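Study this one:
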Amino acid sequence: MTIIETPEIIEKYKVYEREGGVIDFRIFQLDTEQEDTPYQKHLAVAQQTLISVAEEANTRLDRMAAKLKMNRRELFTMDYDFNILKDSGKEISVQDFMGWQYEEVSGRVKILCYDLLNPKTKGYDLYFYYNEKGVIENALFITQEDKGQIGFVYAFLEPPYSFMCGKTIFEKGNFFLDFCRLLFTDISQIEVYMWSTDSSNYFDAGKEWWGAFFWTVYNPYWDRYIGIIASETD
């Protein structure tokens, strides 16, 4: 299994991270001779994603402890439990992966607008289709049931400290869809598995309120797998 890092992906991710994005992505090319089942392939990607992210996070904190002359044990150490992970995978639909903010038929995304106050709630909680004007008449009616069905769109566009890419919801939506095309090519054709967020202490922070997410995605066009994990708090 090989990690894939193209200049285009690296540059796009740098912009995403700089603007407040909190998702960790890992892209893999599996060995061509592997004849495992789809589940086994996704499991291998899930495992390798945790290994890679833990290695990066722990190395960064090792250096921080050394620089600040701190006891390393006082800082976070990411670990994982493959016994919990191994049987936890579940294949899910593209719609369940993307969440309520994605409209599968039209391919449109619904984006939270921070520029317009909701006259009823007095809060910034209005959602609009990314390609429509952010005016009260275009605000979407969102149910509590909808809000409970969060997915990749939420994790990508609504980090705890807000996602600052673009000045308008149209620019944010375009950035998101461009990122999706780069990773997934054709969203309708991807294969997605969801995994237990009890498999690593990486996810503990997100369980407080924002959310904890763990997916693996197969892009058949490029024959690549993407590990996607996210967990944050304020």
The radius of gyration is 19 Å. The beta strands are 2-3, 24-29, 90-92, 102-103, 108-113, 126-129, 191-194, 212-219, 224-231. The chain has a mean pLDDT of 89.
